[in-house]
Amino acid sequence: MEPYRIKVVEPIPVTTREQRQAALARVHHNLFDLRADEVTVDLLTDSGTGALSAAQLAAAMDGDESYAGSRSFHRFHDTVRELTGYPHILPVHQGRAAERLLTATLLGPGKLFLSNTHFDTLRANVALCGGEAWDLPCPEAADLDSAEPFKGNIDTTRLKAVLDGPDGARVGAVIMTLTNNGGGGQPVSMANLTLTSALCREHGVPLILDAARFAENAWLVTQREPAHREHSPRQVAEAAFRLADGCVMSAKKDGIAHIGGFLGLHDTELARRCELLLIATEGFPTYGGLAGRDLDMVARGLHEVTDPRYLRARAEDTAYLADLVRAAGVDIVEPPGLHALYLNAGRLLPHIPPHRFPGQALACRLYLEGGIRGVELGSLYLGTEDEQGAPLTSAPYELLRLAIPRRTYTRGHFDHVGRALARVARDAHLVPGLRITEQPAFLRQFRSRLAPV
Ligand code: F0G
User: Fold this and answer.
1) Lyase among the record's keywords (predicted)?
2) Does 47 contact ligand 1 (Cβ within 6 A)?
């Protein structure tokens, strides 16, 4: 059971089917353009959407808003330092700011980042710095249905081949995303991280963790990797950070905060260069674009997030929703992790081809049915067409992600999702595909307009 009870509640909007139908038309079937008060259960993201604890709110009241050297910074710094072991800790307003500092400093034309899977914003930051982002997911990741425990692993055979090969000299860093959000929220094993760390050290290449969900990864390691069964999530997390040379962190996930992040580094010279960029673009190094109260809430959240009782309850909540989704007749990327379920929309809607966007079609239908918002991870996100609209490339899978905000929704809300999804799945053959009527030059999943076909 959850190791907490509810002290403060927020009403959620309840809408009629007619209102939702009108809203879908108004936003041109792009759910990012809905007003939040048109959404009943918002599973768009687990980022910055969690519930704060009483202790976090109390810490916020004690926030020190001094411009330089605030008490809040020192509390934040000591917490992050103790968790990660990195001597240089730069606060930033959110994860992608840490990514920008790192890519701007480590990359340049012709340089490469290698990863189990780059998250979108990191991939965009690599491209903006003239670099290339190569994903090397392990072969097990390709089978969505298998129960393999660590489908978030990097393919160490390919990693070694790249590092040993002609492109080895171009590699600026290896990034391990914990858990692998772009790859179904799957965890990385400590064995895989240890081997990756050894390969990186051997080749003199920095290993950086994208640690947004480090605690969830650590929990899954304690559950799925026999060598770590007796360890606490905190012990696993501390060990993971110490296998790497640094981290980029979005505290909006496993900091259980509404905003915040940090860059942690071992290398003094690299940290110095990042710090100058931080001052120019984010803020002085003792606040990095955050208020003192934010730093205190993140520090507190980083302690709470590795509590095994919290992590177990979160895992059980996700497993509960996974059972409802399977019972509705909808396949998910197996086995489920903690932060989200990835629904196999392509399989549920075989009558909709990739370029009629089954994931987005399912997202819109689930919104119409129950006011539930998820996010497409399929060909709307990854596909391309030529100027006439003829398909060029499509995504490997057509998925709909239902992300689960931390400590926010109850099983009653999940039951509502399960019932709505069961109704959608029963009449799946009636769900229409969508065509793009307008799209921007890039990042089209956020700004496209669509219409049913
Ligand atoms: N890394 C990972 C693995 C992420 O999932 C995200 C954000 C970021 C970095 C960027 O952090 O948003 O604080 O700048 N993921 C959100 C999501 C947006 O919905 O999965 P940010």
Assistant:
1) yes
2) yes
